C-alpha cells in the first residue's frame, strides 16, 4: 500500500519496499485556465554531495541533460503541455548506481518562461510527486502539494536522501530561489568553466 505523505513527512525505502533497486519518481500537475498562452512546467533533479552542492554540471538532470554521467539518474523527457492523467514528467533512479559521495537527490519543478508569460504556481492545481518501484510498477509513496504558492515559479517537490546507510524519501514542498534557478538554466552545460552549486530558498 502506498504511503501518503504530508509536507515534511518521510518514508524509509528499506521498510516500504525492501527489495526495490530501481525507482521512478513521477511528477504531475494541472494548469488552471489562463489567458491562452501555453503553460509549460519542467521537472529536474540535482545530485547533491554532503555539503549541499552538486559535484559538477552533469549532476543537474533536466530536459537538456537527460542522464547523469554515471547513468544513475535519467529524465524520461520533456512534456510541454502537462495534459492527460498520470505523471506529466518522470525520472528514473538506479539506487545501487548512485555514487557514494551523493548524499541526496532533489526534485524541482519550474515554470518555463514564467516571467514573460506572467505565470505562477497559483495557476497550477493537483500538483504531486510520487515514488514508484520501477521493478514492479508499485507506488511506494505519494505527496500531494497543497501549499499556497500563488506568486512562485519554482518549487522543490521532494528528495531522496541517505540516512544511516539507507535511502529515505521526504516530501518537501519548498519554494526555490528563482533567480538562482534561472542562473543555473542559463549556464549549466553551456559554460563548462562555471561550476553550478545548489542553494535553496525558503
In short:
The protein is mainly β. Helix content is 9%, strand content 40%. It is built from three helices and twelve strands, in the order ββαββββββαββββα.
The first-level CATH class name:
Mainly Beta
Radius of gyration: 16 Å
Query: Based on CA inertia axes, which overall geometry fits?
Result: globular
Poorly predicted ranges (pLDDT <50, ≥5 residues)? 186-202
The main pleated sheet reads as: 6 strands, mixed
Shape-level CATH architecture: Sandwich
End-to-end Cα distance: 32 Å
Share of helix, binned: under 10%
CATH topology: Lipoxygenase-1
CATH superfamily: sav2460 like domains
What structural class results from the helix and strand content?
A: mainly beta
How many DSSP helices? 3
| SSE topology string | EEHEEEEEEHEEEEH
Residues in β-strands, percent: 35-45%
Q: How are the strands of the biggest sheet laid out side by side?
A: 1-10-9-3-7-6
Number of structural units classed as domains: 1
Number of strands: 12
Q: Round the mean pLDDT to the nearest integer and report it.
A: 81
Function: Not known; seems to contribute to the tellurium resistance (Ter) mechanism. Also involved in phage inhibition (Phi) and colicin resistance (PacB).
InterPro entries: Stress/Tellurium_Resist, TerD
Protein name: Tellurium resistance protein TerD
Pfam families: TerD
Amino acid at each position: 500500500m502506498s504511503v501518503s505523505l504530508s509536507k515534511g513527512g518521510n518514508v524509509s525505502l528499506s521498510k516500504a519496499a525492501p527489495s526495490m533497486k530501481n525507482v521512478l519518481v513521477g511528477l504531475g500537475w494541472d494548469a488552471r485556465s489562463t489567458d491562452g498562452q501555453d503553460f509549460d512546467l519542467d521537472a529536474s533533479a540535482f545530485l547533491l554531495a554532503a555539503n549541499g552542492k552538486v559535484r559538477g554540471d552533469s549532476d543537474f538532470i533536466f530536459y537538456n541533460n537527460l542522464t547523469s554521467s554515471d547513468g544513475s539518474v535519467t529524465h524520461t523527457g520533456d512534456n510541454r503541455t502537462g495534459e492527460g492523467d498520470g505523471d506529466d514528467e518522470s525520472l528514473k533512479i538506479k539506487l545501487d548506481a548512485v555514487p557514494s559521495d551523493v548524499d541526496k537527490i532533489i526534485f524541482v519543478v519550474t515554470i518555463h518562461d514564467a516571467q514573460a508569460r506572467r505565470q505562477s504556481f497559483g495557476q497550477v492545481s493537483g500538483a504531486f510527486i510520487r515514488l514508484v518501484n520501477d521493478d514492479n510498477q508499485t507506488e511506494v509513496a505519494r505527496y500531494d502539494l497543497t501549499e499556497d504558492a500563488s506568486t512562485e515559479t519554482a518549487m522543490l517537490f521532494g528528495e531522496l536522501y541517505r540516512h544511516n546507510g539507507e535511502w529515505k524519501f521526504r516530501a518537501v514542498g519548498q519554494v526555490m530561489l528563482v533567480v538562482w534557478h534561472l542562473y543555473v538554466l542559463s549556464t549549466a552545460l553551456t559554460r563548462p568553466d562555471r561550476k553550478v552549486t545548489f542553494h535553496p530558498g525558503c
